[in-house]
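Q: I'm writing up a methods section and want to include an example of the input and output format. Could you take the sequence below and give the corresponding predicted structure tokens, formatted cleanly so I can copy it straight into the document?
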Amino acid sequence: MTDRGGADSGATSPPELLTLHALRLLGWPSPHTIAERTGLDSTLVVELLEDDEARGFARRTSYAGRSGWSLTERGVLEDERRLAEELARTGTRAAIEAAHERFAQLNPRFLAACTRWQIRPGPGEPLAANDHTDWRWDESVLDELRRLEGHLTDVCAQLCRLRRFDGYQARFAAARARVDAGERSWVDRPDADSCHLVWIQLHEDLLSTLGLHRADAPPG
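A: Here is the clean output for your methods example:
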């Protein structure tokens, strides 16, 4: 959701929206994480988070020596309001809807690939964990991820009218390249920019931008 790019790379989102929306996408992030993802100055991010906290849109919590930020219920509503306002201001709703429609067609394939990566059925064990000793099985999953990456490039091309969508395709490609280099955990590791994490963040970004919820989305 970086807001960096050239003059022809689409409409720029205000820092206030980028910061608040990052809380929805990144899952209990620190100001540093938000700054890295959005391209905003970290000092500005802290100021905006404190403003959102004062308005009841965000909260800061600590656990096990770590601290992070999250949206309140009021913050979710405010994020949705700002996103809808941005679509109206930039005239980009049709482009985002078209991208979401294409993404929704790809999503079941991606989820199926992730399931095959995690589960390798065996005799009498239909839900046996994949121990990654079957090279052909794993390569069939990775071939599917390569194909999906090509389709994701097309989806992201439709999203270029809003600069905050920049980066998803490059992040997915970088994760898949690490997988090809032998770092197989980058298919689905939850604590880094893995293929799975990038994909689900884009899914959430599309849904929230359009004011949809997962229950409203097509199956998959």
